[in-house]
Design brief:
Elements: E1 2-5, H1 12-15, E2 17-20, E3 30-40, H2 42-49, E4 65-73, E5 85-88, E6 103-107, E7 111-113, H3 120-123, H4 126-138, E8 147-150, H5 156-167, E9 172-177, H6 180-189, E10 193-196, H7 202-209, E11 215-220, H8 223-233, E12 234-242, H9 254-259, E13 263-266, H10 274-289, E14 297-302, H11 306-315, E15 321-325
Parallel strand pairs: 8-9, 8-11, 9-10, 11-12, 12-13, 14-15
Antiparallel strand pairs: 1-2, 3-4, 3-6, 3-15, 4-5, 5-7
């Protein structure tokens, strides 16, 4: 089969290769998925550059997210699953074989049935962006009746989080963005207000939009950069749901946080508890089946140009998701 892989860390154009690898064979409890699309996420870029961990295996086929069709099943998996369209999660987490290949073998639970009518390339964006967004909105009692701020509302996770907050009953949905074009994206997803943090006073705009109340929940992409600001924006008893940080360490203003009784909830989508993952997956499936959730695609890149796909994500210029088409 054709696959993209790297044997050492480094720049995408230098280390990513496309070549032939042996076809995998499903074992007990596993499925063989013929992949059609592979999603590229910032975590895939970080893993390829070696930030934090280096090479976890001698050779890595990257990408955790993908979409394809089950071709074969191992023992213990119902034969009815053959021919089923699926999306994948955690394909490359703790494993050397991700979705940047024509075929992949996964535990059956990590290949989730895809509702009819979902664009196939969008299905390759569900594992990390989709589950992260839904869990951030659902956790801690959800957002029904609450004022919500989504940091980075035009990003892959943020765009989905804006939609989910609206679908799950938020009273008001605000978003921060970094350009007028991204403001249009966040507003198109359902945000009531998009604030350009590069040229606007975010605190003043949030207080104005909420009539001085502040927000009840912040869904945060970079707690290291925004932690102090988040403390200002949250109302008493508010909570910050954190899924990302631009730095491995941070400093937060303790006394203002305690005076307001603020809560800080951190999570990583790879380690969701089984009950949380099931809840998020069921919510995603429902939204998709009803045609309520969109995952805009910024670039579709052929597998032969997988290095270009990594560069697009690494540069942070793509407004929307970057996906790789598998031949």
């Amino acid at each position: 089969m054709q696959a993209a892989f790297y044997d050492r860390n480094g720049p995408a154009a230098e280390v990513l290769q496309v070549g032939e690898l042996d076809d995998p064979v499903p074992g007990p409890g596993e499925v063989l998925v013929r992949l059609l699309w592979s999603g590229v996420n910032p975590s895939d870029v970080k893993a390829r550059t070696g930030r934090g961990a280096g090479m976890p295996f001698p050779r890595v086929v990257p990408h955790s997210d993908g979409m394809g069709v089950i071709e074969e099943v191992g023992s213990g998996v119902p034969g009815e699953r053959i021919g089923q369209q699926v999306w994948t999660w955690n394909a490359a987490w703790g494993r050397p074989f991700g979705t940047a290949a024509q075929r992949i073998v996964l535990p059956a639970a990590q290949a989730v049935a895809l509702p009819d009518g979902v664009p196939p390339e969008a299905a390759a964006c569900l594992g990390i962006p989709g589950l992260t967004a839904v869990h951030a909105v659902l956790s801690g009692g959800g957002v029904a009746g609450k004022r919500v701020l989504v940091a980075g509302g035009a990003g892959a996770v943020g765009h989905a989080a804006v939609q989910c907050a609206r679908l799950l009953g938020a009273r008001q949905v605000l978003a921060t963005v970094s350009s007028p074009a991204k403001a249009d994206v966040a507003l198109g997803a359902g945000a009531d207000l998009a604030i350009d943090y590069k040229c606007e006073d975010v605190a003043a705009r949030v207080l104005e939009a909420t009539q001085g109340h502040g927000v009840d929940r912040i869904i945060e992409v970079d707690i290291a950069a925004n932690g102090s600001l988040d403390t200002q924006l949250l109302t008493a008893g508010g909570e910050c749901i954190v899924y990302g940080s631009g730095s491995p360490s941070l400093t937060l203003p303790f006394y203002p946080m305690t005076w307001k009784n603020l809560a800080l909830r951190c999570f990583i989508v790879y380690h969701l508890a089984p009950s949380d993952r099931q809840r998020a997956t069921e919510a995603l499936t429902g939204f998709l089946a009803r045609g309520q959730l969109r995952f805009p695609i910024a670039q579709r890149v052929p597998l032969a140009q997988v290095a270009r796909a990594h560069e697009l994500v690494e540069q942070g210029q793509a407004v929307g998701n970057v996906v790789v088409q598998i031949p």
